[in-house]
Amino acid sequence: MSEILESNQQRRTFLGILLGGVGLVLAGVFTWPIFRFLAPQAETEGGQIRLAKNEVSVGGAHFFSFQGLPAVLLQPQAGDYIALSAVCTHLGCVVKWVADKREFLCPCHAGQFSMEGTVLAGPPPAALESFPVSLEGDQVVVG
Question: What CATH number is attached to the domain comprising 54?
């Protein structure tokens, strides 16, 4: 009889440890995204990105990631390049390039930005952030 009680006790201990482990894993799965959201983002100061000149056509836009955020490279005229943040200054939505109007449109609240990043209409409080651009051979260096 004591063997049965001892076996039941071992089974309960095993199940307790197993459920505790599953609980810890689930707690980690649910708290990790919250931690990542609340933790400050690591910034890479002085980072540069190199893009081929032919990635953006004259009058066109090429979206890319710069320092972990969406950015856009424009070529308004042949050989003239502009790099801007693609994050709207109103609520942080990613702006879309409207080629026929040659301007940016924020899909969240209809904010409009010029090709240079200045606010044309809507609720955005400030212009899009611009990044320094230089040319090195057949590459455009942003940053």
Answer: 2.102.10.10
Q: Which residues of the chain have pLDDT under 50?
A: 44-45
Q: Mind listing the pLDDT tens digit for each residue in 33-47? A: 887 777 766 554 457
Whether the Cβ atoms of residue 74 and residue 82 lie closer than 8 Å to each other: yes
Spell out the long-range contacts of 91-99 with Cβ–Cβ below 8 A and sequence spacing 24 or more: 94/70, 95/128, 97/60, 97/61, 97/63, 97/72, 99/59, 99/60, 99/61
The alpha helices in the chain, defined as continuous H runs, are 2-38
Provide the domain limits for residue 93.
49-142
Contact status, residue 83 vs residue 66, Cβ threshold 8 Å? yes
